[in-house]
Design a protein that fits this description.
Layout lengths: L1 H4 L2 E2 L10 E2 L6 H9 L4 H7 L5 H14 L11
Antiparallel strand pairs: 1-2
Helix pairs in contact: 2-4
Length: 77
């Protein structure tokens, strides 16, 4: 899982600091939306030739890791 998560990068100069795949300006959220709309990994790889299967698996691993957060608190102004 760590190897997959290393494919997700966060750089304030790329996509406003959103998590992306290998710094390629592909935000993780885009691929989560594509997968949730019913696209398969194979469909995504056909549309994004510069991605690898492990990139899409990294997106899923990243999302899984986010769900392991114990608690979310709102920030008050």
């Amino acid at each position: 899982m760590t190897d997959l998560l290393n494919r997700i990068t966060i750089n304030p100069d790329i996509c406003h600091g959103k998590p992306t795949i290998r710094g390629l300006r592909y935000p993780v959220e885009i691929f989560l939306e594509l997968l949730s709309s019913g696209m398969t990994i194979e469909d995504i790889l056909e549309d994004y030739a510069d991605l690898e299967r492990d990139d899409v698996l990294a997106v899923l691993a990243f999302a899984a890791r986010l769900t392991q957060i114990k608690r979310i608190e709102s920030l008050s102004a």
